[in-house]
Amino acid sequence: MIATCLSYVIVLLDTSIVNVALEPVAMSLHSDISGLQWVVNAYTLTFASLLLSGGALCDRIGAKTVYLAGLLIFACASALCGLAPNLPVLVAARIGQGVGAALLVPCSLTLINRAFPVARQRASAIGVWAGCGGIAMAAGPLAGGLLIHLLGWRSIFLVNVPIALIGAWLTTRVDSVRADATDRQMDIAGQLLAIVALGASVAVLIEGAKLGWQVGMIRVGAVIALVAWIAFVLVETKRKQPMLPLHFFRSPVFSASAFASSVSGLVFYGLFFLLSLYFQSARGWSPLLTGLAFLPLTAMVAIGSFASGALNRAYGAQRLVCGGFLLYALGFAGLLALADNSPYWRIALCFPAVGFGAGVITPAATAALMTTVDKARAGVAAGVLNASRQTGSAFGVAIFGALMSAVQPLDTGIRVAVYLAIGLSLLGALVWRIALAVATRYVGSDAC
C-alpha cells in the first residue's frame, strides 16, 4: 500500500508542481513560453500516449516487474531533470518521467487488487490510493514553491529520486504477481501512430503560435497530425487486440465520460498553466507566493475528490458532472477579473468553485464509465479514461499557452482564454446531459 501510494504521489505531483517553477526555469535556461509549454507537455503527452501500453505490459510481463521498472525509470529521469544543463535535456528527461509514470499507474492498481482480495478492503485501499493522489495534487504548488524558495527549481525534480527509490525497495518486498493475460498482443502500430498523432498535434499548437500559422513546417505538421489520427483509427478498427478498443465508444455513457474527462483536463490544466505564468510574469510573484495563491484552488480539488462518492450516491452522476461543469463556468467567469489586474482576493473567490468542480467531475465520470464495461475489461476502460484526461491536459497547456503568445495585449489574451474555458465547460455539461439522457431512455443505464 505504501509503495503504490508513494508512486502515485510523485506521478501526480509532477503534473502540477512544475507550474510554479516556470519563471525560474525560463530565467535559468533562457526559455520562452513555447519552451515552457514543452517542459510541461513532454511529461503529460508521454504519460497519455503510453498509458494503455503500460497496462498491456503489466498484463504480459507481470505487475511487480513493470512497476519496479517504472519506478527506476522515473527516478533516473527525475535526476536528469534536476541536473539538466539546458532546455532540450530537461524536455528529454521529462519524456523519461512520462514513460515511468505510464508504467506505474496501471501496475499500481493491479498490485492493490492482488494485495487486497476482499472487495471491501480493496475499495478502501483504492480510496486511500486515490486520496493520496488528491493530496499530492493539492500540495504540489505549495510544496514546489517552498522547495524552490529554499533550494532552487532543480529541487522539485531531485526530491523524486529518494521517494522513488524507497518505493522500489518496498516493492521488492511484495510477493511476485504473475501475469494473467500472457497472450495479450502489444499494439505496436497503434502505439506509434498515437505518439505521432498526439505529438504532431501539440507541436503544431505550440510552435504555430510562435512561428506563425502560415509557415510551411507548421502546415506539414498539421497534415502529419491529420494523417496519423486517421491511420490510428483505421488500425484500431482492424486489430483483434487494439490498444484503444473503439467499440467501447458505442456506449453513450462511455463516450460522454471520456469526453468529460478530456474537457475537464483541458480547461483546468490549461488555465493552471496560464495562471502560473500570470502570477509569476505579469505580477512578479515568487514561486512560493504563487504556490500559496493556488492553495484555495488545489485544496478544493482534494475536498471535491473525497466528497464525490457521497455526492454521487445522493444525486447521481448525471447531476453531479453537470453541476461540476457549471461550477467550472461560474468560477471561470469570475476569472475575467485577471484581465483588469484586480486584487488577488477577487481572483481567489473564484478558485473554490473551479477546484471543487474539478474534484467531483473525474470520479463521477469514472464511476459512470465503469458501469458500461465488463469487469474483465475494467482495467483497459480505466486506462482509456486516464489517457483522455492526460490528453486533454496536454492540449489545454498547448492551446492556452498559444493564446497567451498569439493574442496581444496580455489582458485580451486572458479574456479570450477565459471565454474559451467557459464555452468548453458549458459544452461539457450539455454533452454529458444529452448522452446520459439517451442512455437512460434507450438503454436504461445504471450510471445515471
TrEMBL record:
PANTHER family: MAJOR FACILITATOR SUPERFAMILY MULTIDRUG TRANSPORTER MFSC (PTHR42718). Its main location: membrane. Pfam families: MFS_1. It is a multi-pass membrane protein. Residues 1-441 form the Major facilitator superfamily (MFS) profile domain. This is MFS transporter. Keywords: Membrane, Transmembrane, Transmembrane helix, Transport. It comes from Paraburkholderia agricolaris. It is found in: Membrane. The chain crosses the membrane at residues 38-58, 65-85, 91-112, 124-150, 156-174, 186-206, 212-235, 256-279, 285-308, 320-339, 345-370, 391-410, 416-436.
